[in-house]
Backbone:
């Protein structure tokens, strides 16, 4: 949900329609990637990574889906792509339309520099073709959000929107729900909800949390519940993804029986690997036992970040209620 609208859509009056699309299948009866149904005037390509193990066998198949998307764009279209990733550049080069690369590296047409955490968000300077364009503030934490905003600025400039309008509007963007969303603060403990579950999203979110809550201990409760995260393909990737956390509490994946024995993700192994690299980590068979330890562990000054793409057995609300009862 977009917080400014308190809705996941808005019917406006302008000349543009903005859609989000990805490589997941369209429906149970239509296995085409949903973004192949679009014919965009302008598209933003933010990343290409393996995900959706229930749909794709490997990264090669994912790459084929994105290649199909960029090669079918209409001749009048434009593509704004993340230029810091070699695979994104390679796929984008196959598109028949003009491509504008954005990123933090100097070889991007649109580049963000001088990133500084500021309050709940980030200050940064934008350079276009090597020349200073404007300095912006976005009320969103993390380098990944700077990249996202940069892609939007490049796209809106391509559509003829004046940068002064963008500079005035950006600070009023309240973000979306379940992305580093502060749910409450009880006795000096801040409780934050986030949708992250892919290892890259976990790592970027934790890095952003470090910037937003400097100097505070970061406790992370994680539920690997997607079709991909329940599989061992990301077993080692998660070890690196959690490096910015102080304490990690991992639930055993729900419905693990749906994954063949030899392909199952192990919370026990993840906790052991995290401990081996010097972090405090726990694994739990269920949410109730995780909550019990989390409550005993939490102290004033902590930030508790709950990560799941589902309800996590209503962990967020139960946690806030239990902390309030203790206060």
Residues:
């Amino acid at each position: 949900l977009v917080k400014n609208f308190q809705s996941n859509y808005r019917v406006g009056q302008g000349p543009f329609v903005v859609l989000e699309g990805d490589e997941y299948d369209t429906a149970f009866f239509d296995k085409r990637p949903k973004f192949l149904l679009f014919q965009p005037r302008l598209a933003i390509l933010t990343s290409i990574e393996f995900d959706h193990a229930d749909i794709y066998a490997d990264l090669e198949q994912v790459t084929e889906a994105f290649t199909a998307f960029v090669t079918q764009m209409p001749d009048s279209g434009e593509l704004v792509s993340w230029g810091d990733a070699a695979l994104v550049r390679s796929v984008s080069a196959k598109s028949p339309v003009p491509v504008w690369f954005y990123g933090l590296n100097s070889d991007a047409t649109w580049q963000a520099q001088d990133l500084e955490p500021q309050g709940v968000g980030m200050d940064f300077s934008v350079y276009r073709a090597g020349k200073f364009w404007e300095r912006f503030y976005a009320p969103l934490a993390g380098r990944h959000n700077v990249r996202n905003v940069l892609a939007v600025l490049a796209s809106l400039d391509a559509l003829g929107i004046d940068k002064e309008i963008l500079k005035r509007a950006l600070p009023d963007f309240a973000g979306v729900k379940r992305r580093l969303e502060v749910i409450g603060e009880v006795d000096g403990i801040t409780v934050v909800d986030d949708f992250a579950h892919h290892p890259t999203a976990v790592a970027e979110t934790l890095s952003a949390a470090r910037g937003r809550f400097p100097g505070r201990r970061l406790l992370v409760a994680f539920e690997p519940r997607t079709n991909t995260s329940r599989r061992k393909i990301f077993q080692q990737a998660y070890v690196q993804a959690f490096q910015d956390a102080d304490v990690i509490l991992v639930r055993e994946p729900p419905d693990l029986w749906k994954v063949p024995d030899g392909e199952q993700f192990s919370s026990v192994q993840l906790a052991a690997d995290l401990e081996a690299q010097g972090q405090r980590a726990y694994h739990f068979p269920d949410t109730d036992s995780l909550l019990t330890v989390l409550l005993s562990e939490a102290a004033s000054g902590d930030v508790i970040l709950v990560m799941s793409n589902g309800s996590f057995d209503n962990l967020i609300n139960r946690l806030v209620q239990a902390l309030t009862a203790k206060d």
Remarks:
- Residues 143-158 form the longest helix (16 residues).
